[in-house]
Amino acid sequence: MEIVNEYNRVYEQSLFTKNQTYTNNRCVENEQVVETHKAIVNDAGSPIAIVGKNYNLVQNADIMPQFHEVILASNLDRTGMTKKLASLTEVLRQL
Asked: What is the mean pLDDT of the chain?
């Protein structure tokens, strides 16, 4: 079983604001990069989180196989043990 492919990858993306200024009754929009934060987006580009600029993104696909190996190598009784994958959005909808 390929554990790595079970997890959706997410990506870092710059965060922008739109500044609207009015001169002579005309609206002028300027985009500005938010230097203190960044967005975490899914593969469709939809934002799933806003984090600080120093946040270190770790992919589930990079870390979860180690947990699987530890569980499989342990003496845990895995009878009835299941794994459910859900996005944060799905979890919040259930609340």
From this structure: 86
